[in-house]
Task: structure prediction
Amino acid sequence: MNNNSQSIFIKKDILIRLVEAFFSDDFISNTASIPFKMRPKNAEVPYRCCIYKEREIIKDRIIADLGFSVENLDESERLEDFAKKSLERDKKEETPLTVIDAACKGCVPSRVYVTDLCQGCVARACEKSCKFGAVTIEGGRSYIDGNKCKNCGMCIKSCPYNAIVRLIVPCEQACPVGAISKNSNGIAVIDFEKCITCGKCVAVCPFGAVNEKSQIIDVLQGIKTGKKVVAMFAPAIAGQFPGNIYQLKSAMLKAGFYDVFEVAQGADVTTRNEAKEFTERMKEGKPFMTTSCCAGYNNLIKKHLAEIKTFVSDTKTPLFYIAEIVRKIYPDAITVFISPCVAKRVEVAENENIDYVLNADELGAIFVGRKIEIMEMPEIEYQFNSSKQGRNYGSTGGVSSAVKSLVKDNDVNAVPVIIDGLNKDSVKQLKKYAVDNCCPEGNLIEVMCCEGGCIGGNSTIANQKTAKRIINNLLEKSEDIV
Result:
């Protein structure tokens, strides 16, 4: 994720202001005033045509942060109305993403395009390179017939002047399953029948037009009303904040959470079960097995890659196991998963042991809004210890190496194969493994939806290098799984 883009800073600013408004004397009116405080009268307009459009986009972002869709809004509804409804609702909206129409640039269609750099040269390399007859010479320069072009890019490679370029739409280009298209107005639309909620569109949109529908108000409402709100944070979250995980727990308790658990504890259960399952499958003569902990990958299987289902581990995710543990300890608590990705919102919606999801940005906004400095907090131990391997689940290679470490049968050799990020090519690769009933590179396929693993998730706030360094420091002080 591009954690340094200006659109991310704007999102963070809005979240922080929303938290401050929630704990103020008048949440509803203070929420409604946020667009005007961020873009006061006579202020410089940094991004859009006028101050009124900027305020409108900020308003829509706040509506998404209040947990509502912004498509097809009733313009008569005020921000105050949405703030009030966020306090009164008793269930979450089904789809986790929403597109802000006013923020979407309406990018030009994705295509291969001949620029003015074309010299109409004698070589005609572009024309000769095209196998589909899409490139011709008209008026002394190259012309590409969009009806024939297959976007193979051979003409781009062949041009000696670099005169042919590929125009892309970032969200469409990033989507591995073609779930994003344009409506009649040129605005991005998400087809949730296809969408695997990988969140790549959220991360790449340079205008911040695709937003998660936040559940932060639901969580804060539980805290403010004195209910037991118990948090479970993913292994990747350990690398998102300064300090260590023991100070992080202390900060979360100060923010109002009743107790805090590491999902890495659930990862240890996953590791043990998956190692046993892998051993059994290999002894049965199965060609390979894939991991099952990535929610984006699981959504891909359900909607687009049924062919590989038989090769996927039946073991549950770390979140599933830790949620079971937490629910037994606190049967009446409100449970909250602190997540690095959008896809986990779909998994949570299907699990009665988990109530809400917050991402790293939202947790960070709570800390800032409540003026909590993690580095100043004391260290507080956890009820249960997690292993080094469980705490490394958020990094690419962490899952397969954990499973391999517990494969003890002398007749079984685990050879990991890493799918580091889902894209159109890796989806084709996985499908080929399934259709061929063979993976020549190995027999234990770890699939991570995000490049770098969960620490590269769209809902993270630290860059991968920083996150990895923090997690490595934690691993050095952690015990091996047994």
